Please model this.
Amino acid sequence: MSFDIAAIREQFPILKRVIDGNPLIYLDNAATTQKPQCVIDALVDYYTTCNSNVHRGAHRLADEATRRFEDARDIVKDFINAPKREEVIWTTGTTEAINIVANGLGSLLSAGDEIIATEMDHHANLVTWQQACKASGAVLRTIPVTDAGELDQAAYDAMLNERTKFVAFPHVSNALGTVNPVKAMTAKAKAVGAWVLVDGAQGAAHGYVDVQDIGCDFYALSGHKIYGPMGIGALWGKESVLSTWPVWRTGGEMISTVTLQDATWNVLPYRFEAGTPNVGDAIAMGEAIRWFSALDQEAVAAHEKALLDRATELAEQFEGLTIIGTAKEKIGVLSFVMDQGHPADIGFLLDRQGIAVRTGDHCAQPLMARFGVPGTARASFAIYNTLEEVDALFVALKKVRTMLA
Ligand code: PMP
Model:
């Protein structure tokens, strides 16, 4: 199999857009990726041919919708190498997946227990643990980030102890692109008997994930970061943990029996899927993963590396620009500040040239504080980006520098 960038781009209708006379250069992929036509078609086809509520219907449309919905669950399971399909819970995204775990964890903690998160976490993987600690009297500790934007492993080692009940960290940092040593970090947490959650919002965006190899208890991901729709994602959790974990939302589907005074809970995965699920988007997320998985993954990785290498090389030569996040293991993200202007101005002036980047704190205010910046400008790459687009970013940045000077 080969990697035909032109053929890939052809499948993304939005990439044909023109912004103020400039061809769109979309470099905001860590915020959300664009969708290939097959994903858009999967959504339209679902609503056109078999829209129906799942699991409970006694008719053809309900059967078809249920089959497609459950097939999509299998696609997610295979993509992350989960041992069992029952361990894959549909959620609205990574944020909800983390909240399901935090909700359960909160009731399992006592005063004096410790949770470890990190200084590089997205707010979704930090504020949730803050709240769980506040409610239970547990203590939140955070792994510091080094100047290069890596998690300080020595500090982590020193933090782990018999009171550590739970450890959460990102697979890949959305603000820096750092790829964390999740397998080694999980093994250390497991050695003290802690549960481990990996925030995979950015990790799953760049290729297969192997939750069994990582050894974690929970892995959270979002469909919209992997070429799928917004409002859908998944929580994977080990059956041995999830089947005993306190339930999340209550309502239809998640129950087994109900009397006027009490209820018993359904089996996994339905135990955590109260109410009518987002069937169409789950099916389209499955299609996105199917589409992405069919690409030559070695070629995908090589292409993404080439994009980041080129961007880093040009950034290093660019006067007045400082890269924030220079970890040895990095993927997909170039975060930077410029002497000449505020990140918001850089974003605005790039947009005028058809280039979409993200500016701000990237939902990681403590990390920005760590680097002493109000925010950064962030170019983030996906498989449809080209080396020419990276070059164009730096041509545009030169104009930005002149305008701001
Ligand atoms: N964690 C990380 C590392 C992220 O990048 C994001 C999305 N920016 C989230 C969590 C939250 O994901 P979502 O908004 O899709 O729930």
